[in-house]
Amino acid sequence: MIVVMSPNSSSAQVEQVVQALRDMRTSSRVIQAAGRSVIELLEVGPGFDRARLTALPMVDQVLERPAPVLSVGRQPDQETHEIPLGPRAVVGGKGLAVIAGPCSIECESRLLEIAAAVAEAGAVALRGGAFKPRSSPYTFQGHEERGLEMLAQAREKTGLAIVTEVMCPEHVSRVQPYADVLQVGSRNMHNTPLLTAVGRQPKPVLLKRGWSATLEEFLLAAEYVLLAGNPHVLLCERGIRAHEEYVRNTLALAIVPEIKRLSRLPIIVDPSHGTGRAHLVPPMCRAAVACGADGLLIEVHPEPDQAWSDGPQTLDLEQFRRLMADLKPLAQVCGRAL
Ligand code: PEP
Ligand code: MN
Questions:
Q1: CA of 202 to the centre of ligand 2 (A)
Q2: What is the pTM of this model?
Q3: CATH number, span 83-333
């Protein structure tokens, strides 16, 4: 059970509630969340009196189980939280933010070629893995620091913001100086030490939905980052695992309007991992824009069949250019600029 205090309650009022709980032989701990105090009840004693607790001044709510969206929730009339993507772009505003690039960083010339092409087509950020979470230990695991240096060069040449993955808390200080946005991948959405580590540094976090995570678990993962001090969490729907075999994952687009209803965090859609099939990426991009996504994350490579990872779901440069041109009028109809 938790007690949520009203936003402007003083520490004396919080202490008054804690003392009242002690009188009811109930132990508690105070947590600061979204600018207000939340009191978690640990051991509820025999003298516990919920009505008396609710009647105390500045007690806003007494909840049976923690509300998942204390920090990331949306109040009525609250706008979507805008997150900087490097110095020049934002996600969560009127613009549709497209983040594009290869699954893995392979070599400098290839990365620069992709970066130039996606920038020219209208992407605002370059994605690419230097630390790769691969299912098989026998496949390419990423160029690590060398890959990060290539990303930094691509930013210098194109002005694109850099989005790249961190796989464990120890990576955060290595990746952070090179990245504009730290990606927490689907496999790590439940990794709470990593969520706390990216929450303790100031760069925005792109949080991908775990492939078996519920919406509530997804928002609670974001809550960890906010509680650690970082307000900039960009959610990303990347498909969930279902029984289907014609797709790699099932892109659960209904989560986009539902997140918009429940949370003020922006949400983007990754139809590349969300389908695993390049020919399904453009129609799912259109669907994502139509249902209100704040942006897209798309894998792009000059020769998808030669890509070191995720080739079957990757668009080539021309397919990406065409997609961006096709999305422009649709974005406009949906009230978005691209
Ligand atoms: C990726 O974006 O490269 C990636 C590994 O995605 P996911 O974590 O969604 O599988
Ligand atoms: Mn990939």
A1: 25
A2: 0.93
A3: 3.20.20.70
